[in-house]
Amino acid sequence: MERPRSRLPASDRRQQILTTAEALFAARGFETVTMGEIATASGVARPTVYAYFPNTAAILDALLDAVVSRVWGRLQPLLASREGPPDAETYAAIFTALTHENAGLAILRSGGSPLFQSRRRAVFDARLAEALSPHIGPGTPRYVVPMLVALFEGTAYWAVSEGISDVDTLAHEVAAFIDRGLSRGDAAACAPPRPQHGPRSRRRRS
């Protein structure tokens, strides 16, 4: 006689669905995975998955929220006690924190459709940028923070996928690169404007 399936508490069942979806998204790509496949891999009926999430986009949002929460849990102690722009050591620590997010980095790179990219920008990029913005100097061009988010996430994903073992050295190289770039940007911002010369007029020969 087949034993009846054990009932999981709602929070555990939701987490089971998220864990299963995370593995499927990372392995096959967000766009190719269906709700039915998530149900089958989770060992539950399709209506059970729909009871927790209306679609795969909602599952993706929840996974991205979890990534942001984990990353912020690592970054908050680094940024909470600081005022003004982070120094190179802080940049290195931020990068190192991201390299601990193997599954999260895979999720961030698991899709390329407009839907996926819009969800990613709204949930991950925007929230990480919001966390970094108060610690970037006033007057910094608005493109700097999203540029930093892209640099941190892209390089961390490359390091994890390539199996780079000396993460500390890479972290300090990334930090030095950022520090030099921002220092030059500050110097350029403080430099007096160059005089504007109009087009030279040609003399008429008499």
General description of the model:
It is a single chain. This protein is an all-alpha fold. The chain has helices at residues 10-28, 35-42, 46-52, 56-80, 88-99, 102-108, 114-132, 144-161, 167-190. Helix 5 crosses helix 9 (167-190) and helix 7 (114-132) packs across helix 8 (144-161). 22% of the residues are buried. Mean pLDDT is 82; it is low at 187-193.
Secondary-structure blueprint:
Elements: H1 10-28, H2 35-42, H3 46-52, H4 56-80, H5 88-99, H6 102-108, H7 114-132, H8 144-161, H9 167-190
The chain-level structural class is mainly alpha
**Mean pLDDT across residues:** 82
| Number of E-state strands | 0
Using the CA coordinates, give the radius of gyration.
23 Å
CA-to-CA gap between the ends?
113 Å
| Low-confidence residue ranges | 187-193
Question: What is the chain-wise order of helices and strands?
Answer: HHHHHHHHH
Number of helices: 9
Helix content: 55-70%
Q: What does the main sheet amount to?
A: none
Report the principal-axis shape.
Answer: elongated
What share of the residues does DSSP label as strand, in percent?
Answer: under 5%
Please tag this protein with its features.
206 residues; 9 helices; 67% helix; elongated
Describe this structure in a few short sentences.
By secondary structure, the protein is mainly alpha-helical. It contains nine helices and no strands.
